[in-house]
């Protein structure tokens, strides 16, 4: 029988996948990502301190950060640190799409746009939202160097210019 | 030229500047960008793609000193191009074909030509077979240049290289040839002198001056020879013979070195980048004598300039340029110190293909001159000992002195080919054997004054088409009897 190598850290990988799934459902924009990365650094500091109370965690962190901190602080320091480093690398590698809208979008709209990208590009894309009322409606997408102008202003210009 | 919005709508790609320093922008995005492609900023400033790394492109911004991180850039989809047309004739422009002479915008039709073009292939090339008259006796006799040749003009600073080139441009423009003078990183005062000279002496309607100054941005100076050869190609394709002067290529090499080091490319010999030879060779190879599609012969004669230090011909860039040209004319500062003008060292100068443009008579005259110069040089060495010289040596020295006097030519004098043959013939057949140096000087002065009154036509008609020494002798005898 061929010798099967035991999978290293398979439990850790499963935990990472679970954390990523939660992150992807909560983080949509570049601002969310920046806040999350700052919280990761904070949690990394907490890992090497002892007896951090929940009250302090709730004060300093967002609900997502609090949930993550509780999870990671329950692990041994080294494992927690590895997971944080992994999450930092994962987040910094996320592609960013610059979306220009005529209004400030609600979280529902952000989720819809994020899901659209997930469906079409098969990867989690972070949205950098710019508000430009002069486009009147629709949106302009810049993603990986590609530029797509689906704004109302362009349609009107086509008719009248 | 179309603008940022137009290219954005057309290409549907956008890039953003991540870093910018010393006219070099590092841009992310633009997935379909190609090397050599033109890019445009939101302010409609142009850039040239000069390199690509994994995730970013290196753009040489021609003139955008205020670019900052996050600024948007679009690709144009076309190689970097400049407008060319007959409207450029008589104008002083920069490498982007923008006039800088204060005479208003360029009027007339223009087409856009890419500055990157492949050199004509071997099937289009023809032998260099037509003689190009510079009007300078020593060059036309001993270092002849043909249309389509590439002849390097090399020497220390302030040895008269640019003055010689002005004479060539003046002589050729008067014959209806198109002349493109490209000043690469020059002093403003020097270029003004050149402009003034050409406006006084040359037919400016056949001359284009492409000017870049030492205080111009490095990318603009880098583009200058490319712009020069692109404009020359335009006129060549209209069946013209074009004279292209690149003054000077050592400055261009230094600018390219500066750009390459800023791009982080590995330095090679003398800190020059490894492709410095290629950069110059690709320009030189675009010149030459070719047969056009319509069957006509047309040429670009390249006269690149190289500066030396202390007459050192073995420098890196200098030897590179010597390798990619068909000969060189060496302006020796030691000859200048002896009072010679032009101070050309004929023994260290060579024209590899110029001789095939000459007829038998011209070759024999050149051999005579060369022989006399060698004998004169050797006789002078003997004369320095101060001992009494034999009769033959004294004759050689006297003839040599007269020959040197003849070969001395000030910048305002242009000697057409027929007159050159006439003068050399007189020297060869001993017409001046019994006159003193002072008398000869006066005779030559009177003779050259006539050139300014345009009285050479007679001599041109009689002497240009001679083919043997016997014919020359009899024609001189006839001329003297008149």
Structure description:
The complex is a heterodimer of chains A (161) and B (482). Chain A has 161 residues and is an alpha+beta fold. Chain A has 7 helices and 4 strands; from the N terminus they run H-H-H-H-H-E-H-E-E-E-H. Chain A has helices spanning 10-26, 30-47, 54-60, 63-73, 77-92, 107-121, 152-160, and strands spanning 96-101, 126-131, 138-143, 146-151. Chain B is an alpha/beta fold and 482 residues long. Chain B contains 15 helices and 19 strands. Chain B has helices at 4-11, 137-142, 161-174, 188-201, 218-236, 249-262, 276-284, 316-323, 333-337, 360-383, 391-407, 417-428, 437-452, 457-463, 469-481; strands spanning 15-21, 24-29, 37-41, 46-52, 57-61, 72-79, 81-84, 92-93, 111-114, 131-132, 145-146, 152-155, 178-186, 207-213, 241-247, 288-291, 297-307, 327-331, 350-351. In chain B, strand 4 (46-52) and strand 5 form a beta hairpin. The longest helix of chain B is centred in the last third of the chain and has 24 residues, at 360-383. Chains A and B meet through strand 4 of A and helix 1 of B.
Describe this protein with a few key phrases.
heterodimer; A: 161 residues; alpha+beta; four-stranded mixed β-sheet; 7 helices; elongated; B: alpha/beta; nine-stranded mixed β-sheet
Summarize the model shown:
The complex is a heterodimer of chains A (161) and B (482). Chain A is elongated. Chain A contains seven helices and four strands.
Helix content of chain B: 25-40%
**Could you give the order of the helices and strands of chain A?**
HHHHHEHEEEH
Shape of chain A: elongated
Overall helicity of chain A: 55-70%
Poorly predicted segments of chain A: none
Average predicted confidence as pLDDT of chain B: 91
Would you tell me the structural class of the helices and strands of chain B?
Answer: alpha/beta
| Global outline of chain B | elongated
Query: Helix segment count of chain A?
Result: 7
Major sheet of chain A: order of its strands?
2-1-3-4
Separation, N- and C-terminal Cα atoms of chain B:
63 Å
State the largest interface: A-B, 7 and 12 residues
């Amino acid at each position: 029988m061929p010798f099967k190598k035991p999978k290293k850290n398979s439990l850790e990988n499963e935990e990472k996948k679970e954390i990523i799934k939660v992150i992807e459902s909560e983080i949509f924009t570049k601002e969310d990502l920046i806040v999350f990365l700052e919280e990761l650094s904070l949690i990394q500091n907490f890992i090497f301190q002892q007896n951090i109370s929940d009250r302090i965690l709730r004060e300093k962190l967002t609900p997502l950060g609090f949930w993550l901190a509780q999870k990671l602080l329950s692990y041994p320091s080294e494992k927690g640190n590895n997971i944080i480093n992994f999450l930092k690398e994962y987040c910094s590698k996320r592609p960013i799409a610059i979306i220009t809208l005529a209004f400030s979008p609600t979280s529902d709209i952000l989720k819809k746009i994020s899901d659209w990208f997930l469906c079409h590009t098969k990867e989690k894309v972070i949205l950098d939202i710019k508000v430009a009322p002069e486009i009147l409606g629709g949106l302009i997408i810049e993603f990986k160097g590609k530029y797509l102008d689906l704004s109302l202003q362009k349609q009107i210009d086509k008719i009248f210019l | 030229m179309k603008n940022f919005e137009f290219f954005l709508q057309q290409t549907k790609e956008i890039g953003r500047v991540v870093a910018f320093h010393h006219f070099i922008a590092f841009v992310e995005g633009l997935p379909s960008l190609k090397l050599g492609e033109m890019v445009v900023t939101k302010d409609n400033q142009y850039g040239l793609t000069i390199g690509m790394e994994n995730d970013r492109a290196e753009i040489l911004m021609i003139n955008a000193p205020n670019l900052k991180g996050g600024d948007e850039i679009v690709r144009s989809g076309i190689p970097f191009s400049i407008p060319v047309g007959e409207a450029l004739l008589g104008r002083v422009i920069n490498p982007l074909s923008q006039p800088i002479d204060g005479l208003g915008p360029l009027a007339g039709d223009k087409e856009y030509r890419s500055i990157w073009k492949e050199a004509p292939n071997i099937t289009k090339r023809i032998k260099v077979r037509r003689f190009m008259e510079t009007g300078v006796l020593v060059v036309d006799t001993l270092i002849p240049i043909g249309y389509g040749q590439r002849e390097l003009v090399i020497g220390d600073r302030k040895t008269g290289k640019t003055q010689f080139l002005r004479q060539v441009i003046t002589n050729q423009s008067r014959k209806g040839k198109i002349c493109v003078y490209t000043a690469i990183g020059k002093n403003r005062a020097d270029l003004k002198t050149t402009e003034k000279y050409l406006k006084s002496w040359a037919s400016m309607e056949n001359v284009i001056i492409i000017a870049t100054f030492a205080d111009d941005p490095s990318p603009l100076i880098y583009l200058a020879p490319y712009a020069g050869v692109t404009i020359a190609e335009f006129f060549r394709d209209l069946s013209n013979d074009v004279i292209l002067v690149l003054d000077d290529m050592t400055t261009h090499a230094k600018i390219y070195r500066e750009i390459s080091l800023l791009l982080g490319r590995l330095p090679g010999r003398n800190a020059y980048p490894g492709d410095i030879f290629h950069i110059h060779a690709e320009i030189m190879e675009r010149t030459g004598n070719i047969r056009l599609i319509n069957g006509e012969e047309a040429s670009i004669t390249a006269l690149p300039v190289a500066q030396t230090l202390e007459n050192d011909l073995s420098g890196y860039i200098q030897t590179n340029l010597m390798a990619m040209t068909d000969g060189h004319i060496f302006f020796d500062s030691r000859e200048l110190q002896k009072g010679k003008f032009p101070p050309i060292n004929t023994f260290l100068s060579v024209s590899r293909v110029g001789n095939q443009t000459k007829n038998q008579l011209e070759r024999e005259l050149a051999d005579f001159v060369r022989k006399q110069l060698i004998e004169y040089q050797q006789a002078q060495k003997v004369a320095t000992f101060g001992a009494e010289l034999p009769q033959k040596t004294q004759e050689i020295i006297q003839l040599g002195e007269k020959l040197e006097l003849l070969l001395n030519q000030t910048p305002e004098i242009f000697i057409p080919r027929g007159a050159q043959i006439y003068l050399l013939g007189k020297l060869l057949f001993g017409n001046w054997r019994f006159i003193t140096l002072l008398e000869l000087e006066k005779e030559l002065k009177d003779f050259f004054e006539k050139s300014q009154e345009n009285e050479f036509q007679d001599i041109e008609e009689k002497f240009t088409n001679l083919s043997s020494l016997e014919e020359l002798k009899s024609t001189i005898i006839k001329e003297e009897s008149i």
